[in-house]
Design a protein that fits this description.
mainly alpha; 74% helix; globular
Amino acid sequence: MKNNSYLKVMKDMFIVQMAWSFGVMGVMLVIGLVRLFLYFQENGQDNFYNSFFIVASFFVFIIGIIATQFLPHYVGNGVTRKDYFKGASLALIGLAVTLPFIVWGISALTEFVVENLTSFSFREPNMDFFADEDNIIGDIIQFLIITPFVDIESNWVLSILSYSLKILVYYLAGWFISAAFYRFSVIAGLGVIAISIVLLTVENVLLRSVLNLHVPNRYAFLAELPEATSFALIVIIVLGLFYFIRLMTRRVSIKM
């Protein structure tokens, strides 16, 4: 294929993954409308922006896992492993940049319609409601579910950036894990799952520190790092995930 075949990969994967995103958003909108109808007298439902923020962790992690399954298809059609990686990476970046704005737009539109046609009002976001656990497993589970959140009304730039980072990192974690299982044994894949959990936890702690959000006491040593250092470490985690995914897919045998 031509040298710009990575652009075809980027376009295909971006369109497919964005279609999946719209499918999930459509289901969430229906669920939100049903809840609104059933509990109309009970103000306090999250808006669409906040609701999708919670779901996004699981959703992008899953499509990150699926990303490796595109590799045999493209290599079988003459695309190099390098072009697959470049195209998939660009598709991911496009998804991380555009999806938060789309979610914000849908949320603003639904809020405008609901609040102008009814007496219903959405509740203020409360995305930092966990407390310190007695064991590290509890902290990790909470950190993987309740990621750093900035209210769009208070600072839309930080909110969009943290949203995009969340999509980027969780997608990369899923891709990293699936690439390891595809390239190596099950045992190695399980080891990469453990590494991914550690990286996601550290990234969440560092981002919480940068955003001045609550950090559990057991991670206080990370919260004490200078802001510039914390930000640099987040960048290193992201680039490191890209690098190791590239290493694992560079000469991997294709399983047909």
